[in-house]
Amino acid sequence: MNKLIGLLLKRKKTILLLFSLCFFTYGFSQNVNSKDSITIKSIYNTALLDSACYDWLDYLSNNIGSRLSGSLGAELAVTYTEEQLKELGLDKVWLQPVMVPKWTRGIAEYSYIETSPGVTTTTNICALGGSVPTPHGGLKAEVVEVKSFEELEQLGTENIKGKIVFFNRPMQADLIQTFRAYGGSVDQRYSGAKEASKYGAVGVIVRSMSLRQDDFPHTGAMSYGDIPASQRIPVCAISTNGANYLSATLKLQSDLLFYFNQNCKTHSDVQSYNVIGEITGSEYPNKFIVVGGHLDSWDLGDGSHDDGAGCVQSMEVLRIFKKIDYKPKHTIRVVLFMNEENGLSGGKEYASEAKRKNENHIFALESDSGGFTPRGFSFDIDDNRFEQVKSWMPLFEPYLINLFVKGGGGADIDPLKKEGMILVGLHPDSQRYFDYHHAANDTFDAVNKRELELGAAAMTSLIYLFDNFFK
Ligand SMILES: [Zn+2]
């Protein structure tokens, strides 16, 4: 028995050696070598065998919960992540003060479709972030369904005045990149109330930004633009099932009434913080690499995918470097940005302080697309350096990372953008992201431990390569 195992092990060693030789000589640019693949392997081993990110996310999701800017949850998350970063033995950990908006949902929204007096069907809605409340006691009116702002304009004031406008253009399901489908529909959510109020609408319903048919309404940011406070109309999202039901019922009875009641409120701005930790660079302490996500979340779920995942993955990057005893040449900062969802104050404040202090940021990576299996990265980078970055792709092949594309970095790091700086976004598989995005089901159970860890490992590996090969 032992002999047989010995023989198998010997053969396994030979196979491994042959495999390694093939791998190490395959298509690398001259500046990456077997040492890099060994380091990347140890990064992945640490992430998969000995991670902290899933436990951090468990605490953020299940002990703290939602973290909307200005809420108690956001405050607790600041304290918790600061404590955890301090335990990592980083060179510096600190809080960067930032003023953030505060908006509260109030008691749960309520809505129904009324087809004749007393005959009602309840629907699932939620107020969009930043919406005004309905008048006291709620709002009931006829509904006009539209698919676009052009259709709204064609209908004009005579058809819209005094009614509720229902924006019902679904996310485009034939787009493989779901973020593109989101980008193609989200104007209804962001500007629907502003546009409808121009024609005398009294309220707005928006189909939830989701590709799935279910009963969850999805909130998200909206804006009234420069419409005066007295003319602002309440706006809610309706679940995709609710949207289909309302649309089908309108076809049978165009004069049905829709009732909704929401009690949300905008308060004065409050003080909050970005949470920052740093490993000071051994060769270039004044050149900064940032990795981050946003610590705030919408209030309906626990913000586990959006963006608890990105925060704990970013923390994990620095933890892995400490764990494998890698001493970065550049200063590497983890930044947990506050207020991405409804204002971006954290990202803007971080960038303006960096500018004030003349800090030379050379690279930033954001994870804000969910904690799903990583597929690759999008790079905001010049063509020459992109060619060099693409020569690293074979290093990622064993980990099934094969998407290196040009594109944006992320909302929180974009304000840092300046000539020559590289901004990168982690691209996880996006097919299920909008099932959870900004909805009550964005909870810890929706995140897979292994997928989360693979994302952290991919991020750490990319930062390791940048730290080594860019000056
Ligand atoms: Zn996000």
Please outline what is shown here:
The chain is of the alpha/beta class.
Summarize the amount of helix as a percent range. Answer: 25-40%
What does the main sheet amount to?
A: 8 strands, mixed
The distinct bound ligands, ions and cofactors come out as: zinc ion
Individual helix count: 14
Low-confidence stretches: 1-30
Overall geometry: elongated
Distance between the termini: 54 Å
What's the total number of strands? 16
> What is the radius of gyration computed over CA atoms, rounded to a whole number of angstroms?
25 Å
User: How are the strands of the biggest sheet laid out side by side?
Assistant: 1-10-12-11-13-16-14-15
Q: Which range does the strand content fall in? A: 15-25%
List the secondary-structure elements in sequence, H or E. Answer: HHHHEEEEEHEHHEEHEEEHEHEEHHEEHH
The secondary-structure class comes to alpha/beta
Mean pLDDT: 94
